[in-house]
Specification:
It contains 27 helices and nine strands. It is an alpha+beta fold.
Length: 606
């Protein structure tokens, strides 16, 4: 306050103290008046601007909070705490790159603050720069070895880096330091769930709901874990508990609707959708959630109406704008989606789903060169993105070049009975008896590719220890290892060049198609090698019209793109088919009362 008389400086100090006292007492209006009086005396007072920023954040006005923090820093840039607070605001807005820049400024002014390094780790994690996030966590823990949030962030980073055992060790250390820390319980349970150790995750998730009964996160996780364990009614109750605590939690609404659908409780699905809008009809987020659910269940026109209403309430809301772009693609209006996707990518350039949606919109609109550039940009950022690879393969076919090496990539094995079974039919019957108990729902998961049938949840090969599944798992892995060993040594190839030392199941599930059932043409975005093993095949597959057959090469991008199948494989009991996860594949519908039952899986290199 240089240049002010002693009386003015004293008055400014008194006003700041009065404002702080009022703010702590919850008297926001009185606090704001005090800070504004300071600014009348000293328009560039950094303390008043900072405190106004904190007040705006408390009142749910992050836009004002950012503006006020910036004004404080313009007046005095040597405020590490304010840089950190501004970073927190940016991070909450999803602007992780800007947040990181703020944390770097804070650390440049104060090296030894563990909190600054911890927040920096959060920003790096949000940017998916996991090695750097891990180092930032290490810096945090070097300064404060018992820093529980730092341990939790390190555990989360290691989990996302697919190092679950290391993550588990760190998270158990955090839980030892803070046995009743809800987030420690949740993160450890999530880590165990990722390892498909559902029975171990369940008591931790339940404990989280007991420690923090008013927090939605524990209930949401518990609902997911109970679903993994096929405890469907309890799962529904847990999702409902999460919604009761946060009526606008998107994941809870989505998971509840999907669970009710698979159980055949259709009226409750629709009631759940409309309950979102009834609860807060003037909320853009509520309308956006309803639009998402309506689109997922096929009510695209209703979804677009709610999205339009949401945009009137919040015209710059990124989530709603993304929904609008997705709905325009669903409504076969790709040209209208392109400018919106470009606008979103201006501020979310690293968002791969947005980039892939742009490539899709461009190819559907006839701009194949633009689509190729967008897909290549995705691959520059994520070289193994299966959707971008599928798009490039489709573009090559549209250009008259067949880039898909079907014969070299698709492999078919007719497996004998595994060790422990003398007859393959007996083995298949043992598997079918087990799977019959696991197909305990009515409808297929609405968000997946199966139509007219059911699909098991959880990762069969990763968490089941039933003798038939264990034997089949080992038999499949042996076949895959031979398949991988025979791949050409081409490091530049998007498929062959990805070989590692080992293999891990990214997912495995059983599908049961009933009369009229099929799989839409799709890819597997989480895999490298995908496969399907046939346990029961309906007689219709022998009819000569490829009913129930597995086909390759038909892209499912929209009505503007039409290409014929390149290859088809007839299913037979005991047959294993392996193929690249980015190959378009689907199932020809069949008419037969005998179900078609398979186990499918995705493998990734380790």
């Amino acid at each position: 306050m240089a240049g002010f008389s002693g009386t003015a400086a004293q008055r400014i100090g008194q006003l700041l103290q009065a404002g702080l006292a009022a703010q702590k007492a919850g008297q926001a209006a009185q606090a704001e008046r005090a800070y504004r009086q300071v600014l009348t005396l000293d328009p560039r007072n950094p303390d008043a601007w900072q405190l106004l920023g904190l007040l705006a954040k408390t009142l749910g006005r992050p836009d004002l909070a950012v503006d006020h923090m910036r004004r404080s820093l313009e007046a005095n840039p040597r405020q590490p705490g304010v840089w950190s607070n501004l970073g927190n605001l940016h991070l909450a807005e999803g602007r992780a790159a800007e947040a990181l820049s703020c944390y770097d400024r804070a650390i440049g002014l104060t090296q030894g603050n563990a909190e600054f390094h911890y927040h920096r780790a959060k920003a790096l994690h949000a940017l998916k720069r996991l090695p750097e996030a891990e180092r930032a966590c290490a810096n945090t823990l070097k300064l404060a070895p018992r820093h529980v949030p730092g341990l939790l962030m390190l555990g989360l980073t290691l989990t996302d880096a697919d190092r679950p055992l290391e993550a588990e060790t760190v998270l158990r250390q955090a839980l030892t330091l803070a046995p009743d820390h809800a987030l420690a319980l949740i993160n450890l349970a999530s880590c165990l769930r990722q390892q498909h150790r559902y029975a171990e995750a369940e008591p931790l998730a339940r404990r989280a709901t007991q420690v923090a009964p008013d927090a939605k996160e524990g209930w949401l996780l518990l609902g997911n874990v109970l679903g993994d364990l096929s405890h469907y009614e309890e799962s529904i109750e847990a999702f409902q508990a999460a919604i009761a605590r946060d009526p606008l939690d998107r994941d809870a609404h989505r998971n509840l609707a999907r669970r009710l659908w698979t159980l055949g409780r259709l009226e409750e699905v629709f009631n759940a959708i409309y309950a979102v809008m009834r609860a807060q009809p003037a909320s853009a987020r509520a309308l956006d959630i309803a639009a998402e659910l309506q689109a997922e269940f096929g009510f695209v026109d209703a979804a677009m109406q709610n999205c339009a209403l949401a945009l009137k309430l919040a015209p710059d809301d990124v989530s709603v704008l993304r929904r609008q772009a997705a709905l325009l693609l669903r409504a076969d209006r790709p040209a209208d989606a392109i400018p919106l996707l470009h606008r979103l990518l201006e501020t979310h350039a690293d968002n791969i789903p947005l980039r892939n949606d742009l490539a899709l919109a461009l190819v559907r609109s006839g701009d194949r060169d633009g689509a190729r550039v967008a897909a290549q940009q995705t691959l520059a950022q994520a070289p193994h993105d299966q959707y971008a690879l599928a798009l490039l393969g489709t573009l090559e076919r549209l250009a008259g070049n067949d880039a898909l090496d079907i014969d070299g990539c698709v492999a078919v094995f007719d497996l004998p009975a595994p060790a422990g079974w003398t007859d393959r039919d007996i083995f298949l019957n043992d598997c079918l008896s087990l799977l019959d108990r696991l197909h305990d729902t009515v409808n297929e998961p609405v968000h997946l590719t199966l139509r007219k049938g059911t699909q098991t949840s959880a990762n069969l090969f990763a968490h089941r220890d039933d003798a038939p599944l264990v034997a089949l798992r080992e038999q499949i892995l042996a076949a895959v290892r031979g398949y991988v060993d025979g791949m050409p040594a081409d490091q530049r190839h998007p498929y062959f060049g990805r070989r590692g030392k080992g293999l891990a199941f990214a997912g495995s599930w059983s599908s049961r198609l009933r009369n009229g059932g099929f799989h839409t043409h799709h890819i597997h975005p989480e895999g490298w090698i995908s496969g399907v093993y046939y346990l029961q095949v309906p007689p219709a597959a022998d009819a000569g019209d490829q009913s129930g057959w597995l086909t390759f090469g038909v892209p499912n991008l929209g009505p503007e793109i039409s290409l014929p199948s390149l290859h088809a494989v007839q299913p037979k009991p005991g047959r294993l088919v392996l193929f690249p996860s980015y190959f378009w594949h689907g199932t020809v519908p069949f008419q037969d009362e005998i179900p078609r039952i398979t186990i499918a899986f995705d493998l990734v290199p380790t």
